Automatic annotation (TrEMBL):
It catalyses: L-threonyl-[protein] + FAD = FMN-L-threonyl-[protein] + AMP + H(+). Signal peptide: none annotated. Its EC number is 2.7.1.180. Keywords: FAD, Flavoprotein, Lipoprotein, Magnesium, Metal-binding, Transferase. This is FAD:protein FMN transferase. Transmembrane segments: none annotated. It comes from the Bacteria. PANTHER family: FAD:PROTEIN FMN TRANSFERASE, THIAMINE BIOSYNTHESIS LIPOPROTEIN APBE. Its cofactor is Mg(2+). GO terms for molecular function: metal ion binding; transferase activity.
Length: 243
């Protein structure tokens, strides 16, 4: 998926079991990459985009993702748009969705304490190896080696969309131009795929994205850094002082 993915399994399980769980998790993520990559000519996404594969004949996973993207288009007033670039690209949902599915599978397999980190989109469950709640650092949008917030919890999906690595790459689908106004948007909630899409949509909205995020119902929470260096976040966001 064009990003680094890490897995922290914190349960006291036999080593062979942990290796098997890790292998199954990374196997799933490689499967997602093969199916949803916009860079591989033989992926299902590219074949659908070229008209070589009908959605009705595609895999159940692809049909599920496209249905979710359609729902998210409605929920975000069109600002989350899998066709914003003019071609099919559900990447703003897929990475978080894939990590969420991986986390759900680990829970079902008897590993309820873990952290899946897909390029900064993070799903944590339970506790870390020391028995403490997980700590998730949110990257400082100007200082690569620093954090601007540290979140803590035992059941969190944390997705961040920003312009600090790839520049203004998120398109405003209404105007067809790169969105500006928000430097970094972090969304926290119960589902990483939805959090990923919400963060992308808010960046696409620009400064009006702040008001849109404020209207999201509980348990959704957010933290936003604007281009003029102001930090805004939900009052109930589970934060710790950065370390």
């Amino acid at each position: 998926m064009g990003t680094a993915i890490s897995l922290d399994l914190a349960d006291d399980l036999p080593l062979d079991t942990l290796h098997d769980l890790a292998g199954e998790t990374f196997g799933w993520l490689r499967e997602v990459d093969a199916r949803f990559s916009t860079y591989r000519d033989d992926s299902e996404v590219c074949r659908v985009d070229r008209g070589e594969l009908r959605v009705a004949d595609a895999s159940a996973d692809l049909r599920e993702v496209l249905a979710a993207c359609a729902d998210l288009w409605t929920a975000t007033d069109g600002f989350f748009d899998a066709y914003a670039t003019g071609r099919l690209d559900p990447s703003g949902y897929v990475k978080g969705w894939a990590a969420q599915v991986a986390s759900d599978r680990l829970v079902a397999a008897g590993a309820p304490n873990h952290c899946v980190n897909a390029g900064g989109d993070v799903r944590v469950r339970g506790h870390d190896a020391t028995g403490e709640p997980w700590r998730i650092g949110v990257r400082h949008p100007w200082e690569a080696a620093a954090t601007c917030l540290v979140l803590t919890g035992t059941d969190l999906a944390v997705a961040t969309s920003g312009v600090y690595e790839r520049g203004h790459h998120v398109l405003d689908p209404r105007r067809g131009v790169p969105a500006t106004g928000l430097r970094s948007v972090t969304v926290v909630g119960p589902d990483l795929g939805v959090a990923d899409a919400y963060a992308t949509a808010a960046v696409a909205m620009g400064e009006p994205g702040l008001a849109w995020l404020d209207r999201l119902p509980s348990p959704w929470q957010h933290a936003v850094v604007t281009e003029d260096s102001h930090l805004h976040h939900s009052r109930t966001l589970p934060t710790l002082p950065p370390s």
